[in-house]
Design brief:
Pathway: Cofactor metabolism; retinol metabolism. It catalyses: all-trans-retinol + NADP(+) = all-trans-retinal + NADPH + H(+). It is an enzyme of class 1 (oxidoreductase). Keywords: Lipid metabolism, NADP, Oxidoreductase, Signal. This protein has a single domain, classed as Rossmann fold, CATH 3.40.50.720. It starts with a helix and ends in a 5-residue tail after the last helix. The chain is built from eleven helices and eight strands. The protein has an eight-stranded mixed β-sheet with strand order 3-2-1-4-5-6-7-8, with helices on both faces. By secondary structure, the protein is α/β, with parallel strands linked by helices.
Length: 316
């Protein structure tokens, strides 16, 4: 028995030594597009940290006018100045956007519409994960309210500007966690039963269903849309869960960096020739498989109708 244990003692050390190679293997997929963006306008939600920050930085590096749409304006201002210094692009702006409050979303779009005549790239990146049960300002369960309904409303309100600016793109950041998600229409707000981990999974499934139905409705408009799995990224997304924060710390050597996590969002936003793949899901800068639930067109259409009803959007 002792000999058996001694045999495995070097394993943690070897795992640590191999971590860079393992992380490289798990971080395949790099956006190699050389597209430049002078004169183009982009909005990135949740751009004051993590994947969103890296996505906004790269768009600014390519010459776009970039709007950091964030709840924490003070933190975002610091990030904007950092991006301006790093890229030399002074057209990086911060605007208040709280996806947990539809009034804030509408105010953001109203102000943005006054400032900008066009919008070419919308990156719906912001999100919450494993929150204790709580509700948004409008009474929606926090995961579904922020991750899905908030971005649903934001995209809806910006659609005309996206169409007028075509060709344009919408990228929705989802997750591999969608495989565990289900859309329980009888319990969409988690009032009958609630599990923080599953609530996150449900909202990520909603992101993919929204992307597919949006693509169907936008066919021929010049606006295309894609959902992405960024990978398991070392970021602040786990801040609501002590357990997940500890797990992220324990396995930090194997996690993607935010820059690596941003690659698939950038790939879908920039790569030429993706128009015929509108509505598809991507991971590591290539097409990725989704769950059977995520391919269900009936659920996608019903979720669209229910979302419109909850948000007071007239049905088409």
């Amino acid at each position: 028995m002792v000999g058996f244990l001694l045999l495995f003692l070097p394993f943690p050390f070897l795992l640590y030594i191999a971590a860079p190679q393992i992380r490289k293997m798990l971080s395949s997929g790099v956006c190699t597009s050389t597209v430049q963006l002078p004169g183009k306008v982009a909005v990135v939600t949740g751009a004051n940290t993590g994947i969103g920050k890296e996505t906004a930085t790269e768009l600014a590096q390519r010459g776009a006018r970039v709007y950091l749409a964030c709840r924490d304006v003070q933190k975002a201002e610091l990030v904007a100045r950092e991006i301006q210094t790093k890229t030399g692009n002074q057209q990086v702006f911060v605007r208040k956007l709280d996806l947990a409050d539809t009034k804030s979303i509408r105010a953001f779009v109203q102000d943005f519409s006054v400032e900008e005549k066009q919008l070419h790239i919308l990156i719906n990146n912001a999100g919450v994960m494993m929150c204790p049960y709580s509700k948004t300002a409008d009474g929606f369960e926090m995961h579904m309210g922020v991750n899905h309904l908030g971005h649903f409303l934001l995209t809806h309100l910006l659609l005309e500007k996206l169409k007028e600016s075509a060709p344009s793109r919408v990228v929705n950041v989802s997750s591999l966690a969608h495989y565990l998600g289900r859309i329980h229409f009888h319990n969409l707000q988690g009032e009958r039963y609630y599990n923080a981990g599953l609530a996150y999974c449900h909202s990520k499934l909603a992101n993919i269903l929204f992307t597919q139905e949006l693509a169907r409705r936008l066919k021929g408009s010049g606006v295309t849309t894609y959902s992405v799995h960024p990978g398991t990224v070392k970021s602040e997304l786990t801040r609501h869960s002590s357990f997940m924060t500890w797990m992220w710390w324990l396995f930090s050597s194997f996690l993607k960096t935010p820059q690596q996590g941003a690659q698939t969002s950038l790939y879908c936003a920039l790569t030429e020739g993706l128009e015929n793949l509108s509505g598809k899901h991507f991971s590591d800068c290539q097409l990725a498989w989704v769950s059977a639930q995520a391919r269900n067109e009936v659920i996608a259409r019903r979720l669209w109708d229910v979302s419109c009803d909850l948000l007071g959007i007239p049905l088409d």
